[in-house]
Amino acid sequence: MKKILIMGLPTSGKTTLASKLTTLMNAKHLNNNTVRKESEDWDFSLEGRVRQANRMLKLAEKFQKEKYVIIDFICPVLETRKIINADYIVWMDTIKEGPYSDTNKMFQPPKNFDFRVTEKNADKWAKIIVENIKN
């Protein structure tokens, strides 16, 4: 299984891109908001975000037999990215600030990523990313 992390600020286009990739790659999609809702855990402190990263990782590991699992998650700090330990990271660098000041303050732009998306255009980027991953 390859874990593909789509990360970035809220409203940067993570879920839209993840949905396109899920279809193109016949992958499993784990959406952060869906998982939080199912867990009834809306704690956005650092501890809550670390807990969510661990939860997302455990869910991804349930899909060991799948070729790809797409994890659609803000992952605002290095610690949460280390927990996910993705095989491929897409940084949605399409906005400078999201709608939540606490997340904006906490967010650490990644130093390491495999692909950087700089504009909202999921159709365009999804095709490019699929080719990039498969090569």
What topology emerges from the helices and strands here?
Elements: E1 2-8, H1 14-25, E2 28-31, H2 32-39, H3 46-61, E3 68-72, H4 78-84, E4 88-92, H5 101-106, E5 115-117, H6 122-134
Parallel strand pairs: 1-3, 1-4, 2-3, 4-5
Description:
β4 (88-92), α5 (101-106) and β5 (115-117) form a beta-alpha-beta unit. α3 runs parallel beside α4 (78-84). The mean pLDDT is 96. With 135 residues, the protein is α/β, with parallel strands linked by helices. The protein has six helices and five strands; from the N terminus they run βαβααβαβαβα. The chain has a single domain (2-134), classed as P-loop containing nucleotide triphosphate hydrolases (Rossmann fold, 3-Layer(aba) Sandwich), CATH 3.40.50. The two termini are 16 Å apart. The protein has a five-stranded parallel beta sheet, with helices on both faces. The longest helix is centred in the middle third of the chain and has 16 residues, at 46-61. It has helices at residues 14-25, 32-39, 46-61, 78-84, 101-106, 122-134, and strands at 2-8, 28-31, 68-72, 88-92, 115-117.
